[in-house]
Amino acid sequence: MDHDILVDGESQITCTLSLEMLQSAIKEASEKGEWNKLRFLFLGTAASKTSRGLAYDCDASCVPLDRLIQSDVEDLLTLITRLLQRGASPTGLRSCVKAPLLVAMEMMKFPIAVTLLRNNADPSCIVGHGIFINREVTVMILYKVFNGRTYSYLG
């Protein structure tokens, strides 16, 4: 661990964390629903395209997107995008009660729904739920149909 004194009187500490330690922190934050901690791990202190959290390159396949979508964590869309890039499942974990796409649609979080669809979420999960589908989500579903992915409920 390195400890440096800065000119303005503040100190800066630099340390290296093992991949195993970071993966453990991701798993724990996911299991406990500590979404702000998960946000910090993947996005750091600022949610910009250039900002990187401590766990930027870590695997996110254990993160339950269905539960995360229900949260009010800051920069939710950016966080979900990063998690999908790092292996989070757009269709949800095996233990999920509702698919992340269905949760996003029920909560009218359409940008998240579109992001999930762009990452291969299965749109068939919203059939029969009386879900309002906005124009952008409809376009994404039709886009998937016309690119060779047809779904029985669309015709």
Strand order of the largest sheet: 1-2
- Mean of pLDDT: 81
Number of beta strands: 2
Please identify, by name, the CATH architecture.
Alpha Horseshoe
Question: How many helices?
Answer: 7
CATH C-level class is Mainly Alpha
Number of domains: 1
- CATH fold category name: Serine Threonine Protein Phosphatase 5, Tetratricopeptide repeat
- Helices and strands, in order, run as EEHHHHHHH
Flag low-confidence runs. Answer: 148-155
Main pleated-sheet profile: 2 strands, antiparallel
Can you give a write-up of this model?
Strand 1 and strand 2 (11-14) form a beta hairpin. The chain has helices at 19-32, 35-43, 65-69, 76-85, 100-106, 110-118, 135-146, and strands at residues 2-5, 11-14. The protein has one domain (2-154): Serine Threonine Protein Phosphatase 5, Tetratricopeptide repeat, CATH 1.25.40. Helix 4 packs parallel to helix 6, helix 5 (100-106) packs antiparallel against helix 6 (110-118) and helix 6 packs parallel to helix 7. The chain has a two-stranded antiparallel ribbon. The longest helix has 14 residues, at 19-32. It starts with a strand and ends in a 9-residue tail after the last helix. The chain is mainly alpha-helical. Helix content is 43%, strand content 5%.
Keyphrases for this structure?
single chain; 155 residues; disordered C terminus; two-stranded antiparallel sheet; mainly alpha; Serine Threonine Protein Phosphatase 5, Tetratricopeptide repeat
Topology of helices and strands:
Blueprint: E1 2-5, E2 11-14, H1 19-32, H2 35-43, H3 65-69, H4 76-85, H5 100-106, H6 110-118, H7 135-146
Helix pairs in contact: 1-2, 4-6, 5-6, 6-7
